[in-house]
Amino acid sequence: MTSLALAQILLNGLALGAAYALIALGFVIVINAVGAVNFAQGELVMAGGFLSIALAPFVGDAAGIPGLLLLPLVMALMGLFGIGFAHLAYFPLKNRPPVAVFVSTIAIGLVLQHLANAIFGAAPRAGPPLIAGDGPALGGLTLSLQQLAVLASAAILVSATGLFLGKTQTGRRMRAVAQDPEMAAAIGIRPARMIALSFALALALAGAAGLLLSNQFFVSPNDGGLFMLKAYIAVTIGGWGRLDGAVLGALLIGLFETLVAAFTSYLAAEALLYAMLLAMLAFRPGGLLPERTRSRV
């Protein structure tokens, strides 16, 4: 394998890992906000992909950047859906046993899966590209504009999420509620509003990931379970509850899958990824960036 081919594979891996990072970020944001896993995260990524397909005819190939034009609209619509999702899956059950919340998220995920199947059919569909056309040539390597755009878009969204949560008043309030909702309420913060915003942000990121992945990897109604597993593995490798750990874990997964698949096969890469997960659970259960002790369900 030449160095140029290896560079192309690494670029592919980084672009895939960057999209996974958006899924994992949303996954961790909900865990931190309510202390429970949102098992519908994968189906929400799938929903974002199909939403971009449904909206694509309205922009056509406008200016050669249909996906970039749709990205903020898909995120806004998924964010609004996130507020409804919180009021449907979490708030009515927040005082019930924790198992009730994640069962409700599983139920909503299945509803989304069957709804997508009924509307779009079971066959994989391709979403709009972020940027149409070929990219610049570097030596003997022709860079893909789509992959460069996926990588840049994901990097901007990850950075913006970090700045929002770390530097804005609303982000600090969301983190305060995640750490101690009773204390946050005592100082005047409204926990329910911050939790609803957390779901909105998580679903907006899931929608963005769905759009970014849907062009190169297609999307089908049954893809939710696979996306969910990738998010789960990313936070397990990176460290539960850690936003930076989720991003690190997702990038490692993308690079690992792409590199191993290039030398063996996609099925072998998947099998080795799960073997790596088992090894991580056995020898470093806290992940590469362990979180301070906190119970998760």
Structural class: mainly alpha
Give me the side-by-side strand order of the main sheet. Answer: 1-2
Helix content estimate: over 70%
Percentage of residues in strands? under 5%
Total helices: the number is 11
SSE string, helices as H and strands as E: HHHHEEHHHHHHH
Radius of gyration, taken over Cα atoms and rounded to an integer in Å: 19 Å
Low-pLDDT segments, ≥5 res: none
Form type: globular
Number of strand elements: 2
What is the typical, i.e. mean, pLDDT? 90
Biggest sheet descriptor: 2 strands, antiparallel
Distance between the termini: 45 Å
Characterise this structure:
With 297 residues, the protein is mainly alpha-helical. The chain has 11 helices and 2 strands. A hairpin with a 2-residue loop joins strand 1 and strand 2 (141-142). Helix 1 packs antiparallel against helix 8 and helix 5 (145-167) crosses helix 6 (169-179). It is globular, with a radius of gyration of 19 Å. The mean pLDDT is 90. This is Branched-chain amino acid ABC transporter permease.
List the helices and strands and how they pair.
Layout: H1 3-34, H2 41-59, H3 66-90, H4 98-120, E1 137-138, E2 141-142, H5 145-167, H6 169-179, H7 181-186, H8 191-217, H9 224-238, H10 243-263, H11 266-283
Antiparallel strand pairs: 1-2
Helix pairs in contact: 1-5, 1-8, 1-9, 1-10, 2-3, 2-4, 2-8, 2-9, 3-8, 5-6, 5-8, 6-8, 9-10, 10-11
Produce a short descriptive summary.
With about 300 residues, the chain is mostly helical. It has helices spanning about 5-35, 40-60, 65-90, 100-120, 145-165, 170-180, 180-185, 190-215, 225-240, 245-265, 265-285, and strands spanning about 135-140, 140.
